[in-house]
Amino acid sequence: MQASPLDLAQVLKEEGYLIDEESATTLFLSLTLEKPCLIEGPAGVGKTQLALALARAEKRKLIRLQCYEGLDLNKALYDWNYAKQLLRLQLAKTEEWDEIKVDLFSEEFLLTRPLLESILSPEPVLLLIDELDKSDEEFESFLLELLAEQQITIPELGTIVSKTLPIVILTSNNTRDFSDALRRRCIHIYLTYPTLEREISILSSQAPELSDRLTKDVCEFVARVRKLPIQKLPSVSETIDFARALNALQKETINYGELMGTLSVLLKYPKDIAKLEERLKKWETEAQHRH
Amino acid sequence: MDGWNFIRLVHALRQVSVSISSQDILEAQVCLDRFPDLSEKQILKSLFIHHPQDSLMFETIWRILLENPKSSVLNHSKDGAKDALLEENQDSSGTGGQGVGRGSGGVSLTAKGNILDFSHITNLIPFTRLEELTCNGLEFEEIVQINLAEMDYYTWINSYDLAYQRSELSEEDWYTHQNNRTTLMREIKQQVFTAQVSHENSWEPLARQHWLFKPLSTLTDEEKGLVKSSIRKLARKLAMRPGSRWKISPRGSIDISRIISQSIQWDGILFRLSYRQRIPRAPELVVLCDVSNSMAAFVEFLIYIVMCLRARFRKIRVFFFIDSVWDVSDFVWDDDLGVVKQEIKSWGRMASSGFTDYGVVFRELAENQLRDLSSRATLVILGDGKNNFRPAQPEYLAQISSRVRNVFWLNPLDSQEWNEPDNMIKEYQKYCSKVYRCRSASDFQRVVKDVF
After folding, report:
1. How confident is the prediction for chain B on average, in pLDDT?
2. Residues of A with CB under 8 A from a CB of B
3. Which CATH architecture has domain A5-71+122-190?
4. Conformational region of residue B262, where left means phi above 0, alpha means psi within -120 to 50, and beta covers everything else
């Protein structure tokens, strides 16, 4: 547990994640208050990476629940091992009553899924509920008890309270809005694309083999591309890939005329690439004017 | 931060429908106490703001309450504040120079050319003029518009637009200009809020500008997105009510009776598990949507509502109408509203005079479509009821109403406007199960809660 947001930012930096001051403060507060942290923002700004880095920094085991449409209680929380229960019943035909007086709904027949696992775990864990917005709305309400009280109630067994208080991180791409009940129980971080300076330092820490000149050029170029009205803006990871691609092609600087063919690393829709290529021509003439 | 300011902040936020629980307050106090080194604003923002879209509201209120020394809002020393204001404004016209001739210290954006200093943007805005307009009882949007016009804002942006189109302006400069535009706009809105809040001595003006309560026709793009996402959520809720019938499915709850009956095949040994799920009840919906010009501002949302409903309901029929009915149930819908709007325009020009005639529409519906509707259907009419002085012919709506389960009318006009002479809603009202005012997202939420 760190003593201040700056310390937190520092340990995250050692784990290779650069966080801005505002988010660091918010994350710090959520850790202090032992409340779940909901990280929102567009795809590829490092929401999941933040959770992973935090797990490493706090030396906690990571338990990850990837959400998808149709995810339900039985896959996320717990399930009864019906097959095992049936086997037990089959066996029961040959036994005396005293011997078969086994409770079919005991922990023996319980299958733990990620959420229950994080509650039962004897060592401190970090529970990452990834892309919660992909799950169904009903699923949210299952989570409320876990988020607010750090406990889970199984009707047949009773309430299981967590001993080690997992850190809970939820991420979302905003494909749908959450209920107020869920939002109220969380502390929010909204991550956006990094500023130019921060992206330069991210890029130089992630890809130290690049020259300073290329790093700066790439980040400036990407910042410019993000201002265009395109369908999917380039994410940080795409910036890194793009810079590495240029480096592999032995480029030292960005020259607007020579980028054709490398753009598909940066943008993922043909429509977007066409739009950017058109802009590139304009930028090229502009650049020539200036010289 | 002293307790008084803290309470005022919480009160203000609650007034503009940011929900703050007592637990939030407790936690905020704990954090303020434990971490005196952290910025108070940062702590409170992290703990109070649960929706990203509320953070702008937080900034506005924070500025009005705690960073605005010149207007001591909701304090009783209003006169003192005014004096300070006057001084401030004289300062600004002094530095601005050009603005003096405009009566109240306004600064013309065009006169200053390209050397606008956006770091002192507050000085560009004539606060006394804003107060004057506020006292005249003008609406928020009106004040903003008037103020922009007086600052030559439109000439200013036009000149930049032109320069950019002629490529006299480099792309970098264009983006800087765009940013300046947004900053200026935000600043003006902030100032108008400040003026209005201090004038009315309540947070009401801010609450009115919340996206939930704003009329749909005045929303910005961002707010439109919010409204759409709330509509999407509601449409989903409508379609997802579980019915009373079950079906076999690979997941769901255990189907005991089926397991037992199957086990008979294998001499009573349980061999395979069966699950079942409830079948969602699919309501039958018939939507009638007025797409004439008087509805233009609302049509976008109506179409969006219709699109969401269509995506969720199996049995839905959609009709657009002006003075004749157009069955668009089988029309392929793109996500792009522009295409749909274009279609409507070309259809409107071809098939109608452009003036709504509800009487004819209801007759057409009663004569041609009524036999296809089941008695369990719900008819939803989206329209303003303005009939352009044509005969109402309510008997046809009566006929339709007797054949379907419910008729709901969603009207984007305020109920006072329903009494206007060309408005026929009074005539039709008695054949509807209910008529709702539906001009903002919160209205729509209420309708959904009520009706379905």
Report:
1. 75
2. 4-5, 22, 25-26, 29-30, 32-33, 35, 40, 70, 72, 74, 82, 86, 89-90, 137, 176-177, 180, 183-184, 186-188, 190, 224, 227, 282-283, 286
3. 3-Layer(aba) Sandwich (3.40)
4. alpha
What's the confidence (pLDDT) of residue A277? 87
pLDDT tens digits, residue range B292-346?
Answer: 777 777 777 777 777 777 776 667 788 888 888 887 777 666 666 667 777 777 7
Contact criterion met (CB < 8 Å) for B42 and A25: yes
- Whether the pLDDT of residue B87 is over 70: the answer is no
Determine the residue of chain B that is closest to A192 in CA distance. Answer: B52
The band of A167, judged by pLDDT with boundaries at 50, 70 and 90, is very high
**Domain spans of chain A, in order of start:** 5-71+122-190, 78-112, 196-290
**Which residues in A lie closer than 8 A to residue B46 (C-beta atoms)?**
25-26, 29-30, 187-188
**Residue B369's closest CA among B324, B410, B333?**
B324
Phi, psi (degrees; rounded to nearest 5) at B280: -65, 140
Handedness of CA A66, A72, A78, A83 (dihedral sign): negative
B55 contacts on A by Cβ (under 8 Å): 190
User: Which residue of chain B has the CA closest to A93?
Assistant: B269
| B285 pLDDT above the threshold of 90 | no
pTM for this prediction: 0.73
Identify which of B166, B161, B211 has the alpha carbon closest to the alpha carbon of residue B181.
B161
Taking the C-alpha atoms of residue A234 and residue A263, their distance in angstroms, rounded to an integer, is: 10
